Amino acid sequence: MMNSGRDAGRDELAAFLKSRRARLSPAEVGLPTTARRRTPGLRREEVSHLAGVGIAWYTWLEQGREIDVSAHFLDRIARALRLDATERAHLFTLAHNRPPPIAPADSLRVTPTLRWMLEAVSGPAYLATASMHVVAWNTALSAVFGDMDDIPAENRNMLWLVFASPSHRAAIPNWETDARAMLARFRIEFGRHRDDPAFLELIERLQHISDEFRHWWPEQDVSVRQNKTKRFELSGIGEIELEQSSFLVEEAPDMRLVVYAPVDAQSAKKVALLQRKWSTNRPQPGQDV
Length: 289
Fold this sequence. Notes:
It contains 13 helices and 5 strands. The protein is an alpha+beta fold and 289 residues long.
């Protein structure tokens, strides 16, 4: 008789946990190797010890029993089994039928490959954290929107610039619409990072400096508008239209690549003109923080 969908999912969870337990040796996790083992890998009691969870609960989970465990419990198991980010996400999907909460990145180091990718983008592009803090950017971004190096590191945040920087605000003709849309995206991310100091500090700072943020934040708006085309009014060059796209960076789940692509030939020419001017005056690209 065929198993139900939930039974099949539990069988898959059991097989996944057993396979990850089997691939680890006691020496790899700092445990002594004492008696001869009939099977490779760690014992269940060793996994529960490393994770700091009850042996009965871990055994039931690995047996595929119908039990409910918390995200904190699964994170402990993931650390004990030395799961990488992809394996951790798979564990949560099998156990909870949904992806895990995003874990703060241990490092936001911008690798040479990521920097090369940024400069390979013809339009403005940057790498940012979930809280919209910019950690690296390409030459085109500084050429079009101003040198990010001139902005204090603590203010290199897109939400901060939109709400607290008069020059950035003036460059957005539909400021209220775009600012509200950005705030809704930020609110969604905040829901997954409620204890992250970077979010909490930014919210506190914006509440002190921006009347609009202070009035809109309590509205709890998470209605993300799907209009990706952004209009900008730039001094000396007029209006340009760019389409914004955002991508998760697989190697660092807390980092996003944001790209602005010109939507028409006229906007593309203006971006290219600004880049040529920038290259003549300031040839050095922005550096990561």
